[in-house]
Design goal:
Helix content is about 20%, strand content about 35%. The protein has about 180 residues and is an alpha+beta fold.
């Protein structure tokens, strides 16, 4: 009878061991997240729409350099066009140029916020116009604010230099140069 008891004892111990190895851990109850009762609104940043008054061709009539204190009249035609695809393009007096622009939506002391650039241009060398073109593209590439007043556009850079443009149709004579706004 002892071998039968011993066998029974081994079967019971084996069953307990097997049952202990296959037992499952207690399952925690699922976490329920309450649905918000108010709708969640996510703000999507947007770029201000380009004003129709800006979507013209522009010709530089004066450049206010040295913080806008020294007025100079370009010796050759400098042009600017704002394109619907978010780029500017034009002629710098010797080379064509283009680059991106963005309206910042800010209202600044010198007008509405704008950034232009980086600008790229063709690489022709024009001895008589290189300095003027470099100054023009530097001011334009550092643009900070703009103002459109009828047929006149003023762009001010981060140093206070000003580019004053007119629409081609509003130019009467090259001597009729408006003052910066």
């Amino acid at each position: 009878m002892k071998p039968l008891t011993l066998l029974l004892l081994i079967v019971v111990i084996g069953t307990v061991m097997i049952a202990g190895c296959t037992s499952q851990k207690p399952v925690s109850p699922p976490v329920v997240t309450p649905i918000p009762t108010t709708p969640v609104v996510t703000a999507i940043p947007s770029t201000p729409a380009m004003p129709l008054t800006l979507t013209r061709n522009w010709i530089v009539t004066t450049m206010g350099i040295q913080g806008g204190t020294a007025i100079t009249v370009p010796t050759t035609q400098l042009s600017l066009a704002f394109n619907q695809d978010g780029t500017v393009s034009g002629y710098g007096g010797c080379n064509n140029y283009n680059g991106p622009y963005a309206l910042t939506g800010q209202i600044l002391s010198k007008g509405n916020g704008i950034t232009i650039g980086p600008l790229v241009s063709s690489l022709r060398y024009c001895r008589d116009y290189t300095d003027q073109e470099n100054m023009y593209l530097q001011i334009l590439g550092n643009a900070k604010a703009y103002v459109v007043d009828g047929n006149q556009l003023s762009i001010t850079d981060t140093s206070g230099n000003v580019l004053v443009y007119q629409t081609p149709a509003s130019l009467v004579t090259p001597a009729a140069n408006p003052q910066p706004i």
